[in-house]
Amino acid sequence: MADGIAQFTLRKLRAHLSDYRVQVVVLGVGLMLGISGPFETGEVMRFLPRIAYWVCIVASTYVIGSIITLSLRPRLRHHPLWFRAGLIGLALGCGINLFVQTVNTLIWPIMVGEQLEGMAMLALSILVLCLVISTVFELVGHEDRAGIKNTLPPLLNRLPPGKRGALIALSVEDHYTRVHTTKGEELLLLRLSDAIRETTPVNGLQVHRSHWVASDQVTGSRRDGDRTFLILRDGKEIPVSRANVSAAREAGMLPRN
Q1: Superfamily, domain 154-250
Q2: Helices 81-107 & 47-76 angle (0-180, nearest 10)
Q3: Mean pLDDT in the chain?
Q4: SS3 of 122, please?
Q5: Contact predicate 90/84, CB 8 Å
Q6: Are 100 and 122 contacting, i.e. CB atoms less than 8 angstroms apart?
């Protein structure tokens, strides 16, 4: 299970960091900080080294923050918002502080007095900033999830109320389609192609002529000879046909290597 979550985190991280918009924002923030020279870096560093320092700091802390957030959020989804925001913010603050203070110590030797006081102030500033950011993101995510509840996929209307959970997968059984959700399963007299059309707005992919899976339910994958399987959150394994391996890889469901 831990390996599945780790693979899920790496897959999400790779997909997120490959987004050119994220890369542009990270580079832009790093350049702006490098030009402005906050925290006295403008006085103690020359222009080009300062630009390189801040771009490296921003990019590295963004990656660290993404790993921590993607790792913790699935484990905390059933806890209250204030608890999730506080714990994720605290973890972010500790992780980013450790990295930044280590880098700064390697560049500038530790001295007593004002420098130690500055390190303490920097650590406190990072912790407060991380708590604020995590709270904002959890609030925004909470509103997004509330909005999604109002735009449920039409397919769920075909299920008994007690089985209308988040979509996991669809599988063909003779002339029926079995709908797997987080609240159970139901067999519907419906073609797979028609069922897939009713999964909007859920992101997913038909990975086999008999199977469709929701993207956010994939936690890992495994190989068995020439056969490839996706591992889902509920432990189910869905085969991926050879014709759909490339599409599954492009969708981030399978590793690229």
Answers
A1: LytTr DNA-binding domain (2.40.50.1020)
A2: 150
A3: 84
A4: helix
A5: no
A6: yes
